[in-house]
Amino acid sequence: MPKRWPTVPLGEVAAVIRGVSFDKGDARDAPGPGLLPVLRAGNIGDGLDLTNDLIWVSRRLISEEQRLREQDVAIAMSSGSRDVVGKTAQLRQPWLGSVGAFCAIIRFQGKLHPRFGAHWLRSSQFTAWRGSQAKGVNIQNLRKSDLEAVQIPLPPLAEQRRFVAILDEADALRQRRAQADRRTADFIPALFHQMFGDPATNPKRWPVVPVSSFVGEFQGGRSILTDGTETPATKYRVLKVSAVTWKNYQPEESKPAPPEYEPPNDHIVRLGDVLFSRANTSALVAATVYVFDTPPNILLSDKTWRFVWREPRSVEPLYIWALFQHPSVRAELSVRATGTGGSMKNISKPKVLSLPVPVPPLSLQRAFASRVSELRALEAAQARSRARLDALFASLLDRAFKGEL
To answer: How sure is the predictor about 345, in pLDDT bands with cuts at 50, 70 and 90?
Structure first.
């Protein structure tokens, strides 16, 4: 920290407010009268995801203080992943809702500019602190009292505003790049609709067959007990439920297997796999992803299935991946999922294998796959551009809080 800057405990310039506690029976997975949305730790990323995988609870359970306000920062206080605990994102728009009990709200006040505080919470200085403070074996935790005690720099407000202007400009470049990337990603469902129409109405009148006609089985992994410790001897990592989301395979969402564990070969995730989440939240159960790229040491979990195709193959995996992401197919899979309470749901193999879906000519499926592969090459180039902008922003953050800007 620059010597000319005083530091103060975070609790002197911000309120740290615990998230909302509620019983499983109080939670809903869809909006309804008198309900407000609650964010999970997984909703805290580069920004706040205010749309996907929300929990809905009675507004009576959320105090006025616990309602997120514009400029508040949400922070993950507890998670099974060391990479998630301590992550922060600021609310940049009006929104009515709160955060769950595994999160907290940081509300800046007094002499600290909210954007300066939000940027500092993403700096290398705070990241290093949160890494040293997270406690727990399988679940990593930050203590509220420790967070309130962490020292935050307090330069004059004019200096804070100058840093905010520089950092916000660099951040805006990253956001524009991200928006362009999202538009590219949206091209795939648009292309699917153009080539195949809506599977629910099957306008082309292609043959409708059960999934079992082209999938021989679903191959899953094992439930592996692990204390979450990674050592130089760790060879394999097991996918978490969060690795399979609506659209993207995320191998970083994994946990270390015990060093001595030697998996069967068919439990290792491979390039070209189509993976399926058989147990997940109501919003994400039956989520399907295509493995475009993966480290060689990632293992299927017991909650993640691999499609095993019948031979000779009558479908193109990229077509099935896009088909299973279509809203009408996802809606039908969601109806087939079951659960006894809370927000977690399961779907059985017979219910997936019996699902009727349209199967266009293989030549058309392959044409679609070729276009998707071209798009992936474009996305790879965009990812390199995004990485450069992220590195620039990280460098500016580091320099800002060293007093070098």
So the answer is: confident
227 found inside a domain: yes
Structure tokens at 317: 């995996």
Q: What is the mean pLDDT of residues 98-123?
A: 93
pLDDT value of residue 127:
86
Report the DSSP beta bridge partners of residue 324: none
**Total domains present in the chain:** 2
Q: Which of 318, 338, 359 is the last residue of a domain?
A: 359
Cβ-in-10-Å burial (0-12, 13-18, 19+) of 261 comes to middle
For 155-181, write each residue's pLDDT tens digit. 899 989 988 888 888 888 777 776 666
Tens digit of each residue's pLDDT (9 = 90 or more) over 240-299: 888 887 678 889 888 898 888 899 999 999 999 999 999 888 778 899 999 998 999 999
- According to the model, what pLDDT value does residue 135 have? 58
* Residue 399: inside a domain: no
For 342-346, which contacts have Cβ atoms below 8 Å and span 24 or more sequence positions?
Answer: 342/24, 342/25, 342/27, 343/24, 343/27, 343/28, 343/29, 343/55, 343/281, 343/282, 344/279, 344/280, 344/281, 344/282, 344/285, 345/279, 345/280, 345/281, 345/282, 345/285, 346/278, 346/279, 346/285
State both tokens at 242.
Answer: 């969060």
Confidence of residue 201 (pLDDT cuts 50, 70, 90): very high
- Structural domain range at position 285: 207-359
Question: Which H or E run includes 126?
Answer: helix 124-133
**Residues 308 and 235 reside in one and the same domain:** yes
CA distances 327 to 97, 198, 212, Å, are 26, 9, 21
**How many Cα atoms sit within 13 Å of 336 on the Cβ side?**
18
CATH number for the domain harbouring residue 291? 3.90.220.20
The two tokens of residue 337 are: 């999922």
182 in a domain, yes or no? Answer: no
What's 258's DSSP letter? P
Pair (214, 131) in one structural domain: no
In a domain, 98, yes or no: yes
Which residues are within 8 A (CB) of 198 and not within 5 positions of it... i.e. 6 or more apart?
A: 326, 328
Phi, psi for residue 99 in degrees, rounded to 5: -125, 155
